[in-house]
Design brief:
11% strand, mainly alpha
Length: 239
Amino acid sequence: MKKLLLTLLLAMPVAAWSAGGSDWPMEDFEGDLHNLPSLQHGFKLYTNYCLGCHGLQFQRYQRTADDLGIPHDIALKNLVFTDQKIGDLMTTAMPKEESKAWFGAAPPDLTMVTRVREPHWVYNYLKTFYVDESRPLGVNNKVFTNVGMPNVLLDLQGVQRQVCTDGVCDELVVEAGTGAMNPEEFDAAIYDLTNFLYYVSEPARLERQRTGVFVLLFLIIFGSFTYLLNREYWKDIDH
């Protein structure tokens, strides 16, 4: 029963994110859960630009603030924009039925998006929105072709257009001065946002890694004493 439930939970975002394949060359992404400033900035970006539509229904504000070293009063003042409490789950107020009509499908919960999709997929997806006036929302995406999501980070990145040469559209160019960030700053912001989603997908990852180190040290120490004790027991027998 537990296995079936986990399968269903993981399948929810898959259905919403699986359409629209692409052969766009992907940039590498390496998450860093020890970089608290990155995770904190990613948390801020998520609550400001993503949480209005995409909830994190398996994550609580309190757990997130504690893990990222953010005092509860600061989190409530700067990162919780509704009447939710610090111990509440990070759900969205987006109405499901209306959003289906607006976007064609309800925006998926993103708690486990970097486990269903690889973190580098999310990183590249967020960077590759471009102007496409043929689409209902005026944008398309190089990683998720014919995406049904608006470019919510447009004011940060600026207007990005695809450049085609001899019918091959393999380049994206941002119009200078149209965004609040330059390309390097925007890349760093998207790294932080993806890093935060990487953390959210498994908050216990760091604790598990620390526990694993202690377990290995214990096994090494215990194994050494066991070996020495075994050698001592068999010393007289061997002779």
